[in-house]
Specification:
Elements (H helix, E strand, L loop, with lengths): L2 H31 L11 H14 L1 H33 L1 H14 L8 H8 L3 H25 L3 H9 L4 H39 L11 H10 L3 H29 L6
Amino acid sequence: MTASSNRVSQAGLIWRALVLPAALIIIWAVLDAFSLLNSNILVSPTKVLVTAYQGFADGSIPGATAATLLRALTGWTIGASVGLVVGVLIGLSGIARGLFDPSISSLRQIALFAWIPLFSAWFGNGEIMKVTLISLGAFFPMALGAQAGCQNVPAPFREVGRALELSRFATLTKIILPAAVPAILTGLELSLNIAWLGTFGAEYLIGTGYINGMGDGLGAYLAAAREYARMDQVLLGVLFLALIGVALDRLVIGLSRRLIPWRTA
């Protein structure tokens, strides 16, 4: 496939992806035009736009967005990094697998938000608690992806390393890790998704806390909007969470395509 045809194909995918959101917005606007909206459930698109303008003008939306992104990326970086190391270790070592795999398999069955009472008792309700919760959510998918990638390296690849008399370190860096990259990147994508959900949950359920004076984040913004029955702010917060989540997801998928260009997802 040529570069130009590939660009055309990607443009077609983007346009198809926009069809449903555009249709929903049109239906929303039509319902508003005929006064068929219940303001307690769904406010007009114009009201949401006005609220967005006010939020940018007073800095509340940029501040909340920056706080949420910083929390999410900090927790994701910590959790995914630790998960990568632990996953590779378990995938390469039978002893490590016997020691850690049963415990990790058991702990990952616990719902992420079920850790909140315990973490609150240990760390309080500040930033350490939130980042710890987000990191834990990012840890398990990354560890499982790295473990699966290292364990499932095809036997012929390992045979090549033995035939070339590579050292253990050379075998790890030149054969095992490159072969495990697809599974590791899948774990990276999943860990980002869970970290993003964990960020929203931590902010929404725990609420207070400040990062560099930037505020409580989009989750706390939504919680406050719910308390004051501000449906315009609720819709705006949900929209921003969705847009940023999609942008982060596409960023990781773009990285995956650069590292493994044969990937089509």
